[in-house]
Amino acid sequence: xxxxxATDAARAGAILTxxxxxxxxxxxxxxxxxxxxxxxxxxxxxxxxxxxxxxxGRALAAAGCSRFFVATLDEGMTLRRxxxxxxxxxxxxxLPGCEEAFPADRLLPVLNAREQIDRWRGLADxxxxxxxxxxxxxxxxxxxxxxxxEAESLAEDADCLAAVAPVxxxxxxxxxxxxxxxxxxxxxxxxxxxxxxxxxxxxxxSASSGIFLGRxxxxxxxxxxxxxxxxxxxxxxxxxxAAVVRLDGRIIQVRDIDAGECVGYGSTxxxxxxxxxxxxxxxxxxxxxxxxGNKAVGQLGEHRVPLVGRVSMDLAVFDITGLPDGLAxxxxxxxxIGPGNDADAVAAAAGTIGYEILTALGQRxxxxxxxxxx
Amino acid sequence: xxxxxATDAARAGAILTxxxxxxxxxxxxxxxxxxxxxxxxxxxxxxxxxxxxxxxGRALAAAGCSRFFVATLDEGMTLRRxxxxxxxxxxxxxLPGCEEAFPADRLLPVLNAREQIDRWRGLADxxxxxxxxxxxxxxxxxxxxxxxxEAESLAEDADCLAAVAPVxxxxxxxxxxxxxxxxxxxxxxxxxxxxxxxxxxxxxxSASSGIFLGRxxxxxxxxxxxxxxxxxxxxxxxxxxAAVVRLDGRIIQVRDIDAGECVGYGSTxxxxxxxxxxxxxxxxxxxxxxxxGNKAVGQLGEHRVPLVGRVSMDLAVFDITGLPDGLAxxxxxxxxIGPGNDADAVAAAAGTIGYEILTALGQRxxxxxxxxxx
Lengths: 374, 374
What we know:
19 strands, homodimer, Lyase, Ornithine Decarboxylase, Chain A, domain 1, 28% helix, alpha/beta
């Protein structure tokens, strides 16, 4: 079992600050945007995108969020301990042999395949009562969910439907981050066709980006995740969400470098002139991807400082040449994610998306929560 | 605090198998290779490259390893609880204000800068006794360690040396994975020059790859990490190390796909013909990098199956068209890292190194240890 490290901020190689009030503000903003016709749940899978599902969940529940989505049964069981009252929906559904754990913790499975439906119905039959669930129909991801023909045959099976007692029908958009992508209208039409098979059943189609496609995509329930955590949900436009995450790395050493000297593995950076470097205790083992070598930018006060050389496992080196004396000192902090350099910007430098920057955030960070419930 | 998930293998989206006997065999092989002139320590930083420092540490200590390297004070404190007797060396050295924690847990700091030396000496003076340490001289990484002139001035300061009582002088190679790189000889010469300043002090220069550069690079102590965990230490040549890691992802759903249908976000994969897909409960939140979209390969029995479409946060989809019926079923396992597809091969597909594949291994995996101490 992995130990929980860095409980003491002074010892930590980096401090991850998570603004729970900003998470709540983002949820309220999205709720307002889709309401009153639709409501907003909260997606807290992958440990709330690496930010801590229990803390995020408690803050959102206190703000009035009643419905939460997680990816796995284990995540659902963990979240149940933090949120005794909330509705918790498990996106991956029941794995064979794990069905009993769902009603034991009042977790709702998403039923993604006929095979999952049959097992869930078997459990309902054994228990002699209907067991609520969420139906997932695929509309173009080819990842999870019933095909249209499967949904059609389920809709004709009244006994099965009574047993698995769906409370929601959902699907997932493949290209919602690109508002002009033809898939968005195609998936909306496919979702509406599937919904017509189950009259009266509330629907859910959109995650963060889908919300910004407009009212038709909102259905009854939206499932924001990324936008709650401050990631830009709407591609090229200005990010309307409040910033949630800040990451400050600890400076271990400040050193001189002469012209011609090299930095890091593979000697990929060679100093062009005499200068100064700051070595920070954050590396790729902490989620600072190796792809950020010679590409990331840190901040020291108002100054932007480039990461030079490759990212090491536990260390990264920044060029602080020409900065005012005393701005960088051992034990001080250099900002890796923050205002003017948010997770989306770091992702762009790394060649990925902000989602992956957040979920890769490391276990060695000291985590400092701002706001939320006590 | 992040909860520890997936304690039950049946519920887990993936099972990570770690062969502690193979770790021990690798350490013995390297010890033999560098002995008797030199000895092998063990690098267990970053939670033993993601494999569990406590379990790995206990297995190696039982096999006779007496000296361990970690990256941070927190890692040292955690490892001390598992290894009451071992010598534990903290590579990042003491951060300002954290000096006292080192003698409290009998941790040896690496002193990387004059500033760290001065603080360590201050502690020794306050305690009225010598406090052992490890000296780090930089020989070409420009990352951590004293410059030659700083080492020279320290060597002339007998009082300081008596107080910080070095037991080892170390440096680190920048390009050891490339045996022909001119940096290797340059750094060896620089290290020998620095050692000459401290007659009689044992030296340590090489990590895994450096060991394979040959005897002159072994000095007195080698510091293998990657090679202990089965990563190839010697670039292009056949990997001489025993395999340590296996990763099996859980199949959630097996589904049909028609010609022309798309898979995953951005619709980056379009099926050319009618076929079958397996959706597996492992995604980039588990360290299956997004760069592996349309590039990774899984294994089902003897069959290699390509990952199709983008990697999602919690899911990845594999094309299992044409495989024998029944080979892939919900609840079954599909191998992501294993024989014929080791961490180095996955890294090559992802455009990185095996080290980053290991340190990114996810928190949601069920971890199954083979061998080692009970």
